[in-house]
Fold this protein.
Amino acid sequence: MPFEMYNIMEEEEYEYQAVDLPDGPCFCPQVEFNGNPDSLYFSDGVRRIDFILVYEDEDKKDFEKRHTIQRRMRRREYFEASLMKMGIELEATPSVLDEKLTFVKVHMPWDVLCTYAEVLHIKLPIQPNDLSSRPSAWRYVSWVTKPFNPSEGRIGKEAEFFTAAFEKDRLDNFFVKDKDTFFTQAMRSRMAFYILSRAPYEIRGSIKKFGINKLLDGGVYRAAYPLHDSRFNVQSAEKGCNSERFLLYEEWAHPKSFYKMQPLDLIRKYYGEKIGIYFAWLGFYTVMLMLAAIVGLGCFIYGFKTQETSTWSKEVCDPEIGGKIVMCPQCDTCKYWTLNSTCNTSKKLCIFDNFGTLVFAVFMSVWVTLFLEFWKRYQAELEYQWDTVEFLEQEEPPRPEYEAKCIYERNNPVTGVKEKVPYTACGRCFRISLGIGTVLFWIMLILASIVAITVYRLVVFITFSAKLRNHNLMDFEPIREYVTPQMATSVTASIISFVVIMILNMLYEKVAIWITDFELPRTKTDYENSLTLKMFLFQFVNYYSSCFYIAFFKGKAVGYPGDPVYLLGKYRNEECDPGGCLIELTTQLAIIMGGKAIWNNIQEVLMPWVKNLIFRYCTRSGSEKVKPRWEQDYQLQACSKLGLFYEYLEMVIQFGFVTLFVASFPLAPVLALINNLCEIRVDAWKFTTQFRRIVPEKAQDIGAWQPILQGVAILAVASNAMIIAFTSDMIPRLVYYWSFSVYPYGEHANNTMEGYINSSLSIFNISDFKRNPRNTNILLPYNFTTCRYRDFRYPPGHPREYEQNAYYWHVIAAKMAFIIVVEHIVYFTKFILSYVIPDVPYKVKEQMKREKYLTQVILHETNLKLVTRRLKPAGGDDITSADAEMTKEEMEMNPKTQNN
């Protein structure tokens, strides 16, 4: 068990403390490179390399302090001696290109592999899967999908086995065909890293320092990584090498394979379950996006086709209607303007604000439920196939950083045994409180930036209005039609908002990591979950706050021309276009989504490629020399310590854009689909060609991202319903369309949209202005005494002038009713779908039960009966009849004897 293993390791470390260390730069033997660039073995060609350590010979550096060099050498010597004492075999080889570098090769013998396979609860095959597979319902159309599958001649189907957690004492019960291949290279690398993370490098009294990560941070080692099995574009000539990296590049990462499905089993075998589950989720998400993209594209085409025939946009553009409607100034220094000056904007708005958008928003609410439910089923299949069903139920080992800080003692509530912890109860509360306070501070900083951008909008809107509404620019047709003050302000503010978002992200990222390190989570899963929550909360506010402001706050508290609302007592609140703020929300989403995708691709593709190119250029003097496999990998980029964290974060933020604001931007799924099709191949190319091989890790699911996705899906229903109700102009149009009375300021023909523009604009007497707007150099069709503004208020001269009229309250009631009805219908549908669709397929449940039964029979009952059978009665050597019956029972229950 893990706790027993830790005690053994502590005893070994204590004993080793008293051992005299021999003199010399390294305890492991040093050999020269044998000239085989594809070799994955020690110089003897027998022992396989499971890990590589790289250090720099400090003796060749004159500028460093001598005591620092000696301390690093002592720590490296102690660390390597500890590894050898724990059974690890080492071999050092000088670099071919740089005489300062030395590569230490790590090999794990068979006994060590068996020991740590048991410690890590690695599941290994006990018997081939004997359950008859049911024919798939899709077998008749398999010829359609066959061209999209990876080449069967290169990537064969993995054999299916029933598996069980490895136990060293029951080795005979496991399906060991070949000791060299029984543990895959990913398993070997994982076990090697586990040992490297816990081997001591310094012990002073009761203080222990251990772990390869600390040595890397301290400069004792330059790098630590497992080896790729070949070059990515050339198949290995090494005997017995499967060249899985080459296969992954050809069938997965190469641009010519963009249309093929992902070879998930090979990805999992080569990179581990954690990488495999990420690409499985990304691929599943992309496939589901195809349906959403098709419907969203159809909604966009419908809006594009109907923009010219929309009664609302035609009335705005009509010189006899929109051309004669004089609009009130939207700021204190702005001028009067005619409604038809927003003709182009109104047409664009009709593309996104139509009845098809309503249908699409409801569809996306159902789609997100289907996505999450079907992903649970698919994830359950992968959990069983990849032996991660009981991963979280097993004891996960503590992080080395946690163990190194354990100085206090407490009683374990489960075992009742005293154990060491890094902090007291008060210390833990302090650490958590500091983390919460820091996150809240940064969230408030984001809100302050939103206020600053809002002030920018107000100031720039006044400036653009003064420039674009003067006599000269009004005569210039392109400027007059396409560059409205609202559009110019929205675009520039969106760009500035995106820049601020990216700057705050880079700053907060370092703060979040520092806070999480300070909190000292016990396990790596706890660490990732804590960091995930901090980063997502921050980025949720950072990315979405400007969109929420435009959707739900802008133009909602502006008063009316005679009594406007001022921000900070100085700046008049900005108003929406007469058609609403939906077009501005669409612009904001398009800029942020597009800019984020471009920036991420630059970071993920261009930066690693440029760094590798520079590194190869700096070492070009030795380019003609034959480089060993470990030195070729050293020239690649090191993977981030956080692994896939940023990949998940990028996709979850995109998922929020696709679901939270899809009512305003039906093309969001299309953009997300295009981005994801590139993202899969970009990530595959990056991991396969530009980065060192990632240390394989076990993972049961996508972790804390699963509840985050569920929370976003729930919020998306309310968000889209409120966008349709309060941001778009759909509900007022529906109220007008279905009303049977004549509202003020316009004649309403029953069940038509004629006269809606006139009905949706209230009247204001310009003599009631408290601050008289300037009216010079403006071209208007006639002399006027009133102007119009977007609201539903009584006209001047009415007993309740400038108060909300009955139409206003009818619209508010319709909006609230719409939100309640849509939310209840969608949530009820989500509940029904969640109940009807089981999380685990029936076939997988059967296989799991069969596997548990075989594990119990083979590993427990069989051995128990073998022990009982060997017990002989006193005074006799023969087996009794009861023993004979037990033996017969045992043979019947053991599947291996049945097969014989």
Summary: The first helix runs from residue 2 to 17. DSSP finds 30 helices and 18 strands in the chain. The mean pLDDT is 78. The two ends are 34 Å apart (CA to CA).
